[in-house]
Every structure is written in C-alpha cells, then in structure tokens.
Amino acid sequence: MPTWSSSLPTATTIPFNQISTGTNSTAAMTVNNGASVLLGTAGAIIQSNQFITSTSISSAVDLATTEVNGILPIANGGTGASTAVTALSNLGGQPLDADLTAISALVTTGNLVRTGAGTYATRTIIGSSPIAVADGDGVAGNPTISLTGIVPVANGGTGLSTAPVNSILYASAANTYSSQPGNNQILISGPAGVRCGRARFQ
C-alpha cells in the first residue's frame, strides 16, 4: 500500500487510485480546470472544516454566488420557495397591499378614514354648541354625543331652557317662542278686523 513519504522526489507521481489514505496538514492538493473530484457512490463523503471556492475569501457561504443552489425548505429556516409570492403563501404571510401599507404608516390616533386609493388619515369628532362630544378620537372609549345647551328654533329646538307649569308655548316673533301662563284661559288673537276676545273657564 503506497504511503506518503517525505523522501520522495518532488516530481514523483503516484496514481490517485493507489492512494487509500493519508494525512497532510501543510500541503495543498490542487484540482485544475477540467479536473474534478467525483463521489463514486451515494454514500461517499468529502469532509472538510472549511468551505472555500475560487470566489470566496472566507469559509462563510456567500448566498449571492453559485456556491449555494436549490431552495431552502421551511424546516431548515428557509421559505420553501424561489419567489416572494410563493414564499408569502408558504409562510402564511399577507401579500403586499397599498391600503395595509398606508395604515401601518400612520402614527396618529383617532378614527380611521380612507381618503383615497392607498391613503388613510385619522379624524376626531368635534362638537359645536349646543352639541358636546366626549372621546371624539375613540382612544379612551366610544365617542359620546350629548346636548349641553339650548337648541335654537332654527335647529329644531324651542330656544327656551325652561317651561313653566300650565303654560302655553307660542311664537311671539319670527324664530322666537315664548310661554304664556294658562290660568284656565285661552288667548285668542287674529288679524285686523277679526274680533278677539278672552274666554274664561269657570
């Protein structure tokens, strides 16, 4: 069986098929262009403590070169896909969407409003007297709308804050309501030429 020997001349050639084993920690074996190292059987293994190619400068695997080929499965930390769309599907991810991107870019609080295609803004409900709004932005809870003042006649109200007992509400002027005590009486009025009077209930 041939063995490595430091006494062999430099030009000595030993057929590769005659080398069964050997250890060398200083010299290098060069496989030039056109030559290759082939694994003869399915169980053959080449072991090394580093992985370096002609395009590598370290033992780190460069994913940008042809040193790595194929698709890394999910079980090994990959995506199991060669395209972004398939990778998202495999990983259960949400496809890119302009609306979702716009929403994720928001930094303010409030009610979400879609102002256009792929654009969003936050709004706050604000009241104007006599309407008051609490939690208009919805941050602390649901917005609450309430009346805090007198609703004018022009807005469907009476313009009055009180109504005496047994009083009659009537329009005393344009857009103005007044109250008149009833006192078991009916107040009758009319245009000129029409007799007006007051009837008293006994």
Q: How does this structure look, described?
A:
With 202 residues, the protein is mainly beta. It has a domain at 153-200. The chain has helices spanning 84-91, 98-104; strands at 111-116, 119-123, 131-134, 144-147, 167-173, 176-181, 185-187, 198-200. The strands form four sheets. The chain has a two-stranded antiparallel sheet. The protein has a two-stranded antiparallel ribbon with strand order 3-4. Strand 5 (167-173) and strand 6 form a beta hairpin. The chain is rod-shaped, with a radius of gyration of 47 Å. It starts with 83 loop residues before the first helix and ends with a strand. The relative contact order is 0.05.
Draw up the topology in text.
Elements: H1 84-91, H2 98-104, E1 111-116, E2 119-123, E3 131-134, E4 144-147, E5 167-173, E6 176-181, E7 185-187, E8 198-200
Antiparallel strand pairs: 1-2, 3-4, 5-6, 7-8
The helix count comes to 2
The helical percent reads under 10%
Range of strand content? 15-25%
Strand-pairing-aware structural class:
mainly beta
Count the beta strands. Answer: 8
How would you sum up the global shape? rod-shaped
Largest sheet descriptor: 2 strands, antiparallel
Mean pLDDT: 78
Key traits:
202 residues; rod-shaped; 7% helix; two-stranded antiparallel ribbon; 8 strands; mainly beta; single chain
Task: Give the structure's gist in a few sentences.
With 202 residues, this protein is mostly beta strands. Helix content is 7%, strand content 19%. The protein has helices spanning 84-91, 98-104; strands at 111-116, 119-123, 131-134, 144-147, 167-173, 176-181, 185-187, 198-200.
